Amino acid sequence: ATPLSVMVSTGRAAQMGVLIRSAEALELSGHVNAVVLDKTGTITAGRPSLTDVLPLGAWRSNTDGLLALAAGAEHDSEHPLAAAIVAEAEQRGLAPGDSQREAFQVHAGLGVTCTVDGHAVAVGNTDLIDRLDVGMPSVGNEDLDDIIADMERLSEQGKTPMLAAVDGELAGIIAVADTVKPDSAQAIDALRSHGITVTMLTGDNETTASAVARQVGVDHVIAGVRPENKADEIARLQAQGYTVAMVGDGINDAPALARADVGFAIGTGTDVAIQSADVTLMSGSLMGLVHEIDLAHAALRNIG
Ligand code: ADP
Ligand code: MG
Asked: Which superfamily does 49-177 belong to?
Protein backbone atom coordinates (compact mmCIF):
# COMPACT_ATOMS: atom_id res chain seq x y z
CA ALA A 1 0.00 0.00 0.00
CA THR A 2 1.11 3.59 -0.61
CA PRO A 3 2.41 5.13 2.62
CA LEU A 4 0.20 7.91 3.93
CA SER A 5 3.12 10.38 3.90
CA VAL A 6 3.53 9.81 0.15
CA MET A 7 -0.17 10.45 -0.42
CA VAL A 8 0.03 13.63 1.66
CA SER A 9 3.08 14.90 -0.25
CA THR A 10 1.46 14.03 -3.62
CA GLY A 11 -1.63 15.98 -2.60
CA ARG A 12 0.40 19.02 -1.50
CA ALA A 13 2.31 18.93 -4.77
CA ALA A 14 -0.95 18.83 -6.75
CA GLN A 15 -2.12 21.95 -4.93
CA MET A 16 1.02 23.67 -6.25
CA GLY A 17 0.34 22.52 -9.80
CA VAL A 18 2.88 19.69 -9.67
CA LEU A 19 1.18 16.51 -10.88
CA ILE A 20 2.97 13.34 -9.77
CA ARG A 21 1.95 10.19 -11.63
CA SER A 22 3.03 7.55 -9.13
CA ALA A 23 4.20 6.98 -5.56
CA GLU A 24 7.38 5.51 -7.02
CA ALA A 25 8.14 8.76 -8.85
CA LEU A 26 7.83 10.74 -5.62
CA GLU A 27 10.04 8.32 -3.71
CA LEU A 28 12.71 8.36 -6.44
CA SER A 29 12.61 12.18 -6.43
CA GLY A 30 13.91 12.05 -2.86
CA HIS A 31 17.05 10.31 -4.10
CA VAL A 32 17.75 12.57 -7.10
CA ASN A 33 21.31 13.94 -7.06
CA ALA A 34 21.60 15.05 -10.69
CA VAL A 35 19.13 17.26 -12.56
CA VAL A 36 19.33 17.66 -16.33
CA LEU A 37 17.51 20.64 -17.83
CA ASP A 38 16.61 21.18 -21.48
CA LYS A 39 17.37 24.79 -22.47
CA THR A 40 14.73 26.04 -24.90
CA GLY A 41 11.27 26.08 -23.31
CA THR A 42 12.51 24.72 -19.98
CA ILE A 43 15.14 27.16 -18.65
CA THR A 44 14.04 29.79 -21.16
CA ALA A 45 10.49 30.87 -21.97
CA GLY A 46 10.63 29.10 -25.34
CA ARG A 47 9.15 32.04 -27.19
CA PRO A 48 12.20 33.48 -28.91
CA SER A 49 11.95 36.59 -31.03
CA LEU A 50 14.00 37.61 -34.04
CA THR A 51 16.89 39.95 -33.23
CA ASP A 52 19.12 40.14 -36.33
CA VAL A 53 18.96 39.57 -40.09
CA LEU A 54 22.35 39.88 -41.79
CA PRO A 55 21.81 39.36 -45.53
CA LEU A 56 24.67 38.23 -47.77
CA GLY A 57 25.55 38.48 -51.45
CA ALA A 58 22.64 39.45 -53.70
CA TRP A 59 20.41 39.76 -50.62
CA ARG A 60 22.54 42.55 -49.07
CA SER A 61 20.13 45.14 -50.42
CA ASN A 62 17.00 43.03 -49.91
CA THR A 63 16.68 42.06 -46.25
CA ASP A 64 12.90 41.75 -46.47
CA GLY A 65 13.11 39.52 -49.55
CA LEU A 66 15.39 37.14 -47.67
CA LEU A 67 13.22 37.23 -44.56
CA ALA A 68 10.11 36.50 -46.63
CA LEU A 69 11.70 33.36 -48.13
CA ALA A 70 13.06 32.19 -44.76
CA ALA A 71 9.65 32.71 -43.14
CA GLY A 72 7.98 30.87 -46.03
CA ALA A 73 10.31 27.92 -45.43
CA GLU A 74 9.60 27.97 -41.69
CA HIS A 75 5.86 28.55 -42.04
CA ASP A 76 4.86 24.93 -41.45
CA SER A 77 7.49 24.18 -38.79
CA GLU A 78 6.40 23.87 -35.15
CA HIS A 79 9.83 24.82 -33.80
CA PRO A 80 9.96 27.94 -31.56
CA LEU A 81 12.81 29.29 -33.73
CA ALA A 82 10.51 29.05 -36.75
CA ALA A 83 7.73 30.87 -34.92
CA ALA A 84 10.10 33.78 -34.23
CA ILE A 85 11.04 34.12 -37.90
CA VAL A 86 7.43 33.85 -39.11
CA ALA A 87 6.19 36.36 -36.50
CA GLU A 88 8.77 38.98 -37.55
CA ALA A 89 7.98 38.50 -41.24
CA GLU A 90 4.27 38.92 -40.52
CA GLN A 91 4.98 42.03 -38.50
CA ARG A 92 6.84 43.48 -41.49
CA GLY A 93 3.82 42.71 -43.70
CA LEU A 94 5.63 40.03 -45.71
CA ALA A 95 2.73 37.51 -45.58
CA PRO A 96 4.76 34.27 -45.47
CA GLY A 97 1.50 32.31 -45.34
CA ASP A 98 0.68 33.46 -48.87
CA SER A 99 3.88 32.04 -50.37
CA GLN A 100 3.85 29.01 -52.70
CA ARG A 101 5.39 26.21 -50.64
CA GLU A 102 6.46 22.78 -51.86
CA ALA A 103 8.57 19.89 -50.54
CA PHE A 104 8.68 21.23 -46.98
CA GLN A 105 10.95 19.04 -44.87
CA VAL A 106 11.89 19.15 -41.18
CA HIS A 107 15.44 18.02 -40.36
CA ALA A 108 15.21 17.34 -36.61
CA GLY A 109 17.89 19.18 -34.64
CA LEU A 110 19.15 20.84 -37.85
CA GLY A 111 16.51 23.04 -39.48
CA VAL A 112 14.12 23.02 -42.45
CA THR A 113 14.20 22.95 -46.23
CA CYS A 114 11.37 24.05 -48.52
CA THR A 115 10.82 25.32 -52.03
CA VAL A 116 9.32 28.79 -51.57
CA ASP A 117 7.99 30.72 -54.56
CA GLY A 118 10.22 28.59 -56.78
CA HIS A 119 13.39 29.06 -54.71
CA ALA A 120 15.12 26.22 -52.87
CA VAL A 121 15.37 27.59 -49.32
CA ALA A 122 17.13 26.14 -46.28
CA VAL A 123 17.19 27.59 -42.77
CA GLY A 124 19.12 25.91 -39.99
CA ASN A 125 22.42 25.40 -38.24
CA THR A 126 25.85 24.93 -39.81
CA ASP A 127 25.41 21.14 -39.85
CA LEU A 128 22.32 21.48 -42.05
CA ILE A 129 24.14 23.81 -44.45
CA ASP A 130 27.13 21.40 -44.57
CA ARG A 131 24.86 18.50 -45.47
CA LEU A 132 23.14 20.41 -48.25
CA ASP A 133 26.32 21.26 -50.13
CA VAL A 134 25.66 25.01 -50.12
CA GLY A 135 28.18 27.39 -51.73
CA MET A 136 29.28 30.94 -51.00
CA PRO A 137 27.24 33.75 -52.63
CA SER A 138 28.13 34.27 -56.31
CA VAL A 139 27.33 37.99 -56.01
CA GLY A 140 29.53 40.34 -53.95
CA ASN A 141 32.76 39.51 -52.22
CA GLU A 142 31.70 37.67 -49.08
CA ASP A 143 34.27 36.18 -46.74
CA LEU A 144 33.55 32.92 -44.90
CA ASP A 145 35.68 33.98 -41.92
CA ASP A 146 33.53 37.12 -41.52
CA ILE A 147 30.34 35.02 -41.59
CA ILE A 148 31.72 32.65 -38.95
CA ALA A 149 32.85 35.62 -36.81
CA ASP A 150 29.36 37.17 -37.03
CA MET A 151 27.76 33.90 -35.91
CA GLU A 152 30.20 33.59 -33.01
CA ARG A 153 29.51 37.18 -31.90
CA LEU A 154 25.73 36.57 -31.92
CA SER A 155 26.17 33.31 -29.97
CA GLU A 156 28.27 35.04 -27.32
CA GLN A 157 25.27 37.34 -26.77
CA GLY A 158 23.18 34.23 -25.96
CA LYS A 159 21.36 34.46 -29.31
CA THR A 160 20.83 31.48 -31.62
CA PRO A 161 22.18 32.30 -35.09
CA MET A 162 20.89 30.33 -38.08
CA LEU A 163 22.08 30.29 -41.65
CA ALA A 164 19.73 30.80 -44.57
CA ALA A 165 20.56 29.48 -48.03
CA VAL A 166 18.69 30.24 -51.25
CA ASP A 167 19.15 28.22 -54.46
CA GLY A 168 22.32 26.55 -53.19
CA GLU A 169 24.11 29.69 -51.98
CA LEU A 170 24.48 31.21 -48.53
CA ALA A 171 22.01 34.10 -48.30
CA GLY A 172 22.22 35.35 -44.74
CA ILE A 173 22.41 34.93 -41.00
CA ILE A 174 19.20 35.11 -38.99
CA ALA A 175 19.43 35.29 -35.21
CA VAL A 176 16.76 34.86 -32.57
CA ALA A 177 16.93 35.21 -28.80
CA ASP A 178 14.89 33.77 -25.99
CA THR A 179 14.54 35.16 -22.47
CA VAL A 180 15.18 33.02 -19.40
CA LYS A 181 12.12 32.41 -17.21
CA PRO A 182 12.04 34.77 -14.20
CA ASP A 183 12.70 32.11 -11.57
CA SER A 184 15.01 29.71 -13.42
CA ALA A 185 18.12 31.08 -11.70
CA GLN A 186 16.48 30.88 -8.26
CA ALA A 187 15.43 27.25 -8.86
CA ILE A 188 18.88 26.23 -10.10
CA ASP A 189 20.46 27.91 -7.08
CA ALA A 190 18.09 25.99 -4.75
CA LEU A 191 18.94 22.67 -6.45
CA ARG A 192 22.65 23.31 -6.10
CA SER A 193 22.30 24.20 -2.42
CA HIS A 194 20.64 20.76 -2.01
CA GLY A 195 23.90 19.30 -3.33
CA ILE A 196 22.33 18.37 -6.66
CA THR A 197 24.47 18.53 -9.82
CA VAL A 198 22.70 20.63 -12.47
CA THR A 199 23.39 20.13 -16.19
CA MET A 200 21.94 21.95 -19.21
CA LEU A 201 21.28 19.71 -22.24
CA THR A 202 20.55 21.36 -25.58
CA GLY A 203 20.69 20.96 -29.32
CA ASP A 204 21.77 24.58 -29.55
CA ASN A 205 25.43 25.47 -30.14
CA GLU A 206 28.06 25.50 -27.39
CA THR A 207 28.63 29.26 -27.28
CA THR A 208 24.93 30.20 -27.07
CA ALA A 209 24.30 27.47 -24.49
CA SER A 210 27.23 28.67 -22.33
CA ALA A 211 25.99 32.26 -22.47
CA VAL A 212 22.54 31.18 -21.21
CA ALA A 213 24.15 28.84 -18.62
CA ARG A 214 26.14 31.77 -17.19
CA GLN A 215 22.91 33.81 -16.84
CA VAL A 216 21.23 31.13 -14.69
CA GLY A 217 24.21 29.64 -12.86
CA VAL A 218 24.34 26.17 -14.43
CA ASP A 219 27.87 24.81 -14.33
CA HIS A 220 27.65 21.79 -16.65
CA VAL A 221 26.61 22.30 -20.28
CA ILE A 222 26.13 19.59 -22.88
CA ALA A 223 25.48 21.41 -26.17
CA GLY A 224 24.99 20.40 -29.78
CA VAL A 225 23.14 17.22 -28.77
CA ARG A 226 21.03 15.65 -31.51
CA PRO A 227 17.46 14.76 -30.43
CA GLU A 228 18.17 11.01 -30.72
CA ASN A 229 21.19 11.36 -28.39
CA LYS A 230 19.60 13.20 -25.47
CA ALA A 231 18.60 9.93 -23.75
CA ASP A 232 22.20 8.66 -24.06
CA GLU A 233 23.41 11.63 -21.99
CA ILE A 234 20.97 10.64 -19.22
CA ALA A 235 22.20 7.04 -19.37
CA ARG A 236 25.80 8.25 -19.14
CA LEU A 237 25.05 10.06 -15.84
CA GLN A 238 23.19 6.99 -14.53
CA ALA A 239 26.22 4.84 -15.38
CA GLN A 240 28.27 7.19 -13.15
CA GLY A 241 25.91 6.28 -10.30
CA TYR A 242 23.63 9.32 -10.35
CA THR A 243 19.88 9.20 -9.79
CA VAL A 244 18.80 11.53 -12.57
CA ALA A 245 15.82 13.85 -12.99
CA MET A 246 15.30 15.29 -16.48
CA VAL A 247 13.11 18.30 -17.25
CA GLY A 248 11.97 19.03 -20.80
CA ASP A 249 9.15 20.36 -22.93
CA GLY A 250 9.69 19.13 -26.47
CA ILE A 251 9.06 16.03 -28.59
CA ASN A 252 12.88 15.93 -28.73
CA ASP A 253 13.01 15.45 -24.97
CA ALA A 254 10.55 12.52 -24.74
CA PRO A 255 13.11 9.67 -24.91
CA ALA A 256 15.32 11.40 -22.31
CA LEU A 257 12.31 11.96 -20.02
CA ALA A 258 11.45 8.26 -20.28
CA ARG A 259 15.09 7.25 -19.65
CA ALA A 260 15.55 9.43 -16.56
CA ASP A 261 14.81 8.04 -13.10
CA VAL A 262 12.22 10.80 -12.81
CA GLY A 263 11.03 12.68 -15.93
CA PHE A 264 9.48 16.13 -15.49
CA ALA A 265 7.47 17.72 -18.30
CA ILE A 266 6.75 21.41 -18.57
CA GLY A 267 2.93 21.74 -18.55
CA THR A 268 2.92 24.13 -21.48
CA GLY A 269 5.09 21.70 -23.47
CA THR A 270 4.12 19.13 -26.08
CA ASP A 271 1.74 16.26 -25.30
CA VAL A 272 4.44 13.74 -26.17
CA ALA A 273 6.71 15.15 -23.46
CA ILE A 274 3.89 15.11 -20.90
CA GLN A 275 3.01 11.48 -21.76
CA SER A 276 6.66 10.44 -21.37
CA ALA A 277 7.07 12.11 -17.98
CA ASP A 278 6.41 11.00 -14.40
CA VAL A 279 5.68 14.51 -13.18
CA THR A 280 4.11 17.52 -14.90
CA LEU A 281 5.02 21.05 -13.82
CA MET A 282 1.76 22.79 -14.72
CA SER A 283 2.98 26.37 -14.25
CA GLY A 284 6.16 25.74 -16.22
CA SER A 285 8.29 27.11 -13.40
CA LEU A 286 11.37 25.16 -12.34
CA MET A 287 10.51 26.09 -8.73
CA GLY A 288 7.85 23.34 -9.03
CA LEU A 289 10.72 20.84 -9.38
CA VAL A 290 12.39 22.22 -6.24
CA HIS A 291 9.12 21.96 -4.26
CA GLU A 292 8.55 18.40 -5.50
CA ILE A 293 12.03 17.32 -4.39
CA ASP A 294 11.47 19.00 -0.99
CA LEU A 295 8.14 17.16 -0.59
CA ALA A 296 9.81 13.89 -1.58
CA HIS A 297 12.44 14.39 1.13
CA ALA A 298 9.70 15.11 3.67
CA ALA A 299 7.81 11.95 2.67
CA LEU A 300 10.96 9.82 2.92
CA ARG A 301 11.73 11.19 6.39
CA ASN A 302 8.23 10.23 7.52
CA ILE A 303 8.51 6.72 6.09
CA GLY A 304 11.80 6.53 8.02
P1 ADP B 1 16.79 22.51 -28.40
O2 ADP B 1 17.39 21.30 -27.74
O3 ADP B 1 17.48 23.76 -27.92
O4 ADP B 1 15.29 22.58 -28.20
P5 ADP B 1 16.73 21.47 -31.22
O6 ADP B 1 17.33 20.11 -31.06
O7 ADP B 1 15.28 21.52 -31.47
O8 ADP B 1 17.15 22.45 -29.98
O9 ADP B 1 17.50 22.22 -32.41
C10 ADP B 1 18.90 22.31 -32.42
C11 ADP B 1 19.36 23.36 -33.40
O12 ADP B 1 18.93 23.01 -34.74
C13 ADP B 1 18.77 24.74 -33.16
O14 ADP B 1 19.52 25.48 -32.23
C15 ADP B 1 18.87 25.34 -34.56
O16 ADP B 1 20.18 25.81 -34.83
C17 ADP B 1 18.58 24.16 -35.47
N18 ADP B 1 17.14 24.09 -35.80
C19 ADP B 1 16.23 23.19 -35.34
N20 ADP B 1 15.01 23.41 -35.88
C21 ADP B 1 15.12 24.50 -36.66
C22 ADP B 1 14.23 25.25 -37.48
N23 ADP B 1 12.94 24.95 -37.62
N24 ADP B 1 14.73 26.32 -38.15
C25 ADP B 1 16.03 26.65 -38.04
N26 ADP B 1 16.92 26.01 -37.29
C27 ADP B 1 16.49 24.94 -36.62
MG1 MG C 1 12.93 22.50 -25.48
From this structure: Calcium-transporting ATPase, cytoplasmic domain N (3.40.1110.10)
